[in-house]
Amino acid sequence: MAKDTKPRRPRAETPKGFRDYFGADVTERKAMLDRIAAVYDRYGFDPLETSAVETLDALGKYLPDVDRPNAGVFGWQEEDGDWLALRYDLTAPLARVAAQYRNELPTPYRRYAMGPVWRNEKPGPGRFRQFYQCDADTVGAASVAADAEICAMLADALEEVGIPRGDYIVRVNNRKVLNGVMEVAGILDPADPEKHEHERGIVLRAIDKLDRLGEDGIRELLGEGRKDDSGDFTQGAKLSNAQAEVVMRFVSAKRSVKDNFARWAGRVDKNSTAKFLIAADATDRQFQQVLGKDFTEWPEYGLWNDAVVEYLGDLVTGSKTGQDGVAELLEVGSQLAAQGYGPDRIVIDPSVVRGLGYYTGPVYEAELTFEILDEKGRPRQFGSVAGGGRYDGLVERFTGQKVPATGVSIGVDRLLAALRAKGRAGQSLQGPVIVTVMDRDRMADYQTMVGELRAAGVRAEVYLGNPKNFGNQLKYADKRNSPIAVIQGGDEAARGVVQIKDLVLGARIAESASLEEWKSQPAQFEAPRAELVAQVKRLLAQNGD
Amino acid sequence: MAKDTKPRRPRAETPKGFRDYFGADVTERKAMLDRIAAVYDRYGFDPLETSAVETLDALGKYLPDVDRPNAGVFGWQEEDGDWLALRYDLTAPLARVAAQYRNELPTPYRRYAMGPVWRNEKPGPGRFRQFYQCDADTVGAASVAADAEICAMLADALEEVGIPRGDYIVRVNNRKVLNGVMEVAGILDPADPEKHEHERGIVLRAIDKLDRLGEDGIRELLGEGRKDDSGDFTQGAKLSNAQAEVVMRFVSAKRSVKDNFARWAGRVDKNSTAKFLIAADATDRQFQQVLGKDFTEWPEYGLWNDAVVEYLGDLVTGSKTGQDGVAELLEVGSQLAAQGYGPDRIVIDPSVVRGLGYYTGPVYEAELTFEILDEKGRPRQFGSVAGGGRYDGLVERFTGQKVPATGVSIGVDRLLAALRAKGRAGQSLQGPVIVTVMDRDRMADYQTMVGELRAAGVRAEVYLGNPKNFGNQLKYADKRNSPIAVIQGGDEAARGVVQIKDLVLGARIAESASLEEWKSQPAQFEAPRAELVAQVKRLLAQNGD
């Protein structure tokens, strides 16, 4: 009970898995989102901003990590017993809104949404518990025209933010094709859709990891199971060899079509065969370059898409769902082609399945195909930055009535990282002009200077730290990345002048250290007080060149 | 265990106290925040975006509603035992950041932040549990120049978003003056600052409610306590009559100075007395108009501010803290005056105390002085939209070292409501041009049309609902607030034309129902397909006039 017992000090720490964004990290993300929003707006999508908090009930159990259906969200219980939680994506809140406002909203309802989402996952390197998403969805449109539109808009958005054509590819598939494959393999019975749900979940998640596990890894997961490098064992779907074989033909679809592509192409144009002799191990990017060329040279479109659709059509023979999926794929492809979105931008790709359980039709994702260096300095493709698909059952959870819906989610942090990798973002903020304080009593004079500068649109501030040590003021200007410092002591004030210090030039001189330059271009000069604004603007314009 | 047991459907509801924002509600807030950010940027403030989640520890117990120190936040316990919570303001996270990154950040550190905050309060009419704030703070500047700068910036920001000069007033006071009053009243002992803390809290919160309780209500709370209209009793501070008298002289300061203002003014300029004969019951707005005039006519500034400072100086005689506060007030006022911010924009006002316990020096708030009608149709002043002050102790919680800081928080929703009340916001979104679907098989043609329109910068979309009923398509266009519908059936396609329907004119005609207008200005006309974009742009430009 001693009076001088010190209270424990709280620790100044961002909670584990969370981040703080400073300066340009904020403005660059904002600039990117503004550009994306402009594209969404042009396509007729309206903004929607739901609350960050939802009832746990409304969120449902649709987290990507379905292995832990009850975990994954940050939730708490209210005094009245209700459970609330932070949204983990922007799709679940949209489904809630579409149900709640179904009588007021237009049908179809096109909306976009941007904002943070939260995942209660174990934080790890590059794995954060709060991150931005940027979604666009169309609710109430059953036609695949809505899916095609989202794919085209996604391609436009990527180009708008600065990913040039050829550096990205939007890949489209259809979940009904996969369901058809499941039917043919005997693990999906249209008359009893809940049967084999567990097995199908394992198969879906296995296929989604093709990149990481390879075909052999998937084959293990279709059978008894798979032990990973760490020794952990994942239970398999325990399919028979014949069943697994059907699924594996789907898994290897892309590779197989690549292998056969020369033959397909040759059938369409006898003289073009050589152009399509793509090695089976060609990267997606090499492949895409040929597809782009192909599309330009044969405007009748579709060599690759035709080949894929024919392969898949064979695979799902006997399944109505599968055939519907193939027909939808063809329709999406031909609508996009008619609008000029060829396979150099949007391509049918049977390797896309998307891990989420709720997709019911077309699924799509955007991949950036340029290479970056991984942690070990090896080149690798940048990878996926957006994904989505059709989910006709999410609104039904609330209303009991099927409402068709389709949409895409852009991983904002990943896309921004891509822009930085391409040198299209990552600059630091332009610092303010600093008016230094030589004479504390004349603070009002210095404030008047910055007032004039701001009125002329110049970012400017008075140094507000302790002005005693002038060196600290210049160090501050340096830390702020300031282009110019303005100095006026009592002597200058009496003579009606100011000193203007060009910090950009000063830094350059300090680097080169050539005496000649010092003499010809002084980094500091005197100007009449009345010319302060004009001289600063002149210098800023000059340094901006 | 019957197979057909239906799962319970979740309810499609925004959680109580939360809101969804649609369309223009999102874009208008964004436009307003962008304008404010531009002002903050010009003043040299850098953006900061902290995570929505903080450790409960870091947040501390600084909620405005100090009567319930442990409630007020949405928090939950992590598996590792730590407590996390959603931020309830943007100041507590800044204090954490200033401590955490103190070696990397510049000193002073000027930052702005915008985003939602969460309060776990009982929801009620107009009381929400998630709302936006927009803050600007300077950390590490002890000088009142930092406070003056924030006040000037706040005035600039209000004008930038569309609140004209004369419709707002930034009011400044200083917490040290109040502390001086507390010393004189004998409920604050500089040698033992924790003594009487409870009483001071009651006094502070009582004074902050002057508008609502009136002077009589405050007097009750300074004594035994007060029973409100509902019969609830609030404990009073139990001051003696003499003590309460000192506090009441502070409470009535503004009214008293208003009463005496003619005399003060007369002292300065014998001829001006008549101009200052302001009735004691003059509204702030009437009063402000005279102050504004006064300031323009007497550029030597300060009649009102001088009068207030003299009154307060008398009140805190004998208290060093109080005298410091008065000196700071004078300094803030004269710095602002030197920059041209007279009492028509920023005024010293002893009635400002701000409810938060952590303020240590200047406190300020922005009030909108124009009148709106309340729920009962009576005119009332719009009221406060922003507030802040100096809090030199918040960073110290983490580091043990005093770090001076000052800043303002704008209530974003209130300010947006004000803009709407002034007719400067509240429009609905411009709807897209709708290309209708007459022939489902020619979807690609319609998509090509919207593609061309978008490429020309026109917001446009294809109708993606079921196209069977053409009336539904026009109803949709109406609901979307579309300016134009484009129609092309098989006949028009064969002839290479489109029908362009001017929905704005159509609506006007439908309203006026004059046959003459119908004839002279057809709301629908035919145009060659090749001229689609040009005709739509012409019509949009025409309707925009």
Automatic annotation (TrEMBL), chains A, B:
SUPFAM superfamilies: Class II aaRS ABD-related, Class II aaRS and biotin synthetases. GO terms for cellular component: cytoplasm. The keyword Ubl conjugation does not apply. GO terms for molecular function: ATP binding; histidine-tRNA ligase activity. The keyword ATP-binding applies. Keywords: Aminoacyl-tRNA synthetase, ATP-binding, Cytoplasm, Ligase, Nucleotide-binding, Protein biosynthesis. Signal peptide: none annotated. NCBIfam families: hisS (TIGR00442). Its EC number is 6.1.1.21. It is found in: Cytoplasm. Belongs to the class-II aminoacyl-tRNA synthetase family. It comes from Rhodovulum euryhalinum. GO terms for biological process: histidyl-tRNA aminoacylation. This is Histidine--tRNA ligase. It catalyses: tRNA(His) + L-histidine + ATP = L-histidyl-tRNA(His) + AMP + diphosphate + H(+). Pfam families: HGTP_anticodon, tRNA-synt_His. InterPro entries: aa-tRNA-synth_II, aa-tRNA-synth_II/BPL/LPL, Anticodon-bd, Anticodon-bd_dom_sf, His-tRNA-ligase, HisRS-like_core, HisRS/HisZ, HisRS_anticodon. Gene3D superfamilies: Anticodon-binding domain, Bira Bifunctional Protein, Domain 2. L-histidine binds at D89, L90, T91, R119, Q133, D137, R354, Y358, Y359. Residues 108-432 form the Aminoacyl-transfer RNA synthetases class-II family profile domain.
